[in-house]
Model the fold of this input.
Amino acid sequence: MQASPKPTAIWWVRRDLRLADNPALEAARAVGSVLPVFVLDPHLLSRAGRRRTSFLFAGLRHLDASLRQRGSRLIIREGEPAEVLAGICAESGAQTITAERDYTPYALQRDARVASRLPLHLTPGLTLHPPDQVVRRDGRPFTVYTPFSRAWMALPLPGPGDLVPPPARLDTPSGIASLPLPEAEAQDAEFPAGEGEALRRLESFCAPGSGGVWRYASDRNLPAVEGTSLLSPYLRFGMVSARQAAIAALRAADAAVSPEARGGAHTWLSQLIWREFFISILFAFPHARRRALRPDLQHVRWTDDRQTFEAWCRGETGFPMVDAAMRQLGAIGWVHNRARMLAASFLAKHLLLDWRWGERWFLQHLIDGDLAANNGGWQWVAGTGTDAAPYFRIFNPILQGQRYDPHGDYVRRWVPELRDVPAPFIHTPWRLPEAEQRRLGIRIGRDYPSPLVELGAARQRAIEAYSLSRRRPSP
DNA sequence: TTTTGAGTTGTTCGA
DNA sequence: GTCGAACAACTCAAA
Done:
């Protein structure tokens, strides 16, 4: 063992790919020399789709570049984290490992394994408030969003002065071997990775006057409009911290000049709170990862129809809003929130397919794919979760299209074969008269699928299947 | 312990 | 076309 002259801490990077406002990095710096390490964990990598993996790899390159500017670098290793870290501790003589605490079932198990044999020091940072601190008076977890958010807001909130700037220099021991940085695919056009890009987005979204946050309350519902922050992939990998985002939201609310603007900032903040709510839910109810949170909805008789599922995956259901969502997912690995809800609701309700099939597909393909947020969102839409949508709240993809994509811009962008369909028919192309189809050169059923189900009957079938499960005494 | 008010994002039906 | 009620009761959270 070759001890370095100065005490050394390993900064174990997991999903906190940033130098600013990073408690795990600060904890390592407090020890002395900092050895930044990222472990390629086969267990996690095998579950992420190509696009998210590439985003992560590009993020590692950016982090490494930032570290090198500060006299440091990122050590890449591969394998079972406890084994790998034990090896690096021995090589470097590091006395401590710092890391941002993560709350998924796998992360908890992994970190317990590491902590059982190595000095692992976990810090907050993934959330503003640790999930086990936003609880009811009796200590039990909240299971309804609104009381959770009230309790969350009642805890001390950070201000701009709490943000820790990135270190100007980092002292890192030399001579520690690293694998080459993994190759990312060509830079993602929609979501360039990196802390710099994340901060630019946050700043422009909250920019006085021009920022999207001021119109967020209304524009966030329009999938054809760039009305959301587009920060989800960056929050997913901690290229920006939830705290940085929340502080920006609180400042925006303070600076708002109109009730609408203030409402926009609050609505956006509430989305950050939703993120923490779902992290808390999965932490408190780990079984939700694999089955319905609500015991009475664990026995819905899904149709188990693979072909229908595959049509949904491909974006060939015959319902333009659903198909636009699924094509957007395939094309850029990100889907507008309203379109996500629509596509998810359509799968679980109208197609009566097991929501977990859709959950897995989303988790694999989304750049921002996050176990807690994805599972929470799916269970909410499917009505199986805590604080779920009532059974009768079933999105109608036609009405939703007419309401939130009235001109069909979103549909035309992602379902190009419907490009020339006039607006009155854009959400119901099967109603185009034959002559009109000929004139436009599009044949429904050949160039674009006929609807997979009849909405009214499918809705009825879903309500019945759900109530049947609920009537069954739960085991 | 009991009571009370409330519950992200909707749709349909009938007046 | 617009509006309000119904949709099914239930559970949560706090007083």
